[in-house]
Amino acid sequence: MYNRWMVKSIPFYFFIAAIALIYIANGHYADKTMREINKTEKNLKEMEYEFKTAKQEVIFRSKESELAKAVEPLGLKPLTVPPLRIIDTLEEK
């Protein structure tokens, strides 16, 4: 009688074992996902720092004084007098 009960319970034991395996696999999957999230967040912070550094460099180089220094070897100089306005007096009406 006891032996028959053991044989009858084998599918239940397999079911419990399968649930335990799924539980363990789910834990490993969650750990892996958390590691990937942390890695992505770290990478994102590094990219934010790089972006901010590049943005500051662009802002610095686009200043008028820095542009003047950059184009001076090309022979270009900033205007000292305002530009002249050309007006067409021969407009046809």
Structural description of this entry:
The chain has one domain. The chain contains 2 helices and no strands. The protein has helices spanning 2-61, 64-71. The mean pLDDT is 91.
Largest sheet: none
Secondary structure: helix percent: over 70%
* Annotation field: number of helices: 2
From the alpha-carbon coordinates, what is the Rg to the nearest angstrom?
Answer: 37 Å
- Stretches where pLDDT is under 50 for at least 5 consecutive residues are none
Secondary structure category: mainly alpha
Counted up, domains total 1
Cα(first) to Cα(last) distance is 117 Å
> What is the string of helix and strand elements?
HH
Shape: rod-shaped
Number of strands: 0
Give the quaternary arrangement of the chains.
single chain
| Beta-strand content | under 5%
Rounded mean pLDDT score: 91
Task: List descriptors.
0% strand; 93 residues; mainly alpha; 73% helix
Write the layout of secondary structure elements.
Elements: H1 2-61, H2 64-71
Protein name: Cell division protein FtsL
Keywords: Coiled coil, Membrane, Transmembrane, Transmembrane helix
InterPro entries: FtsL-like
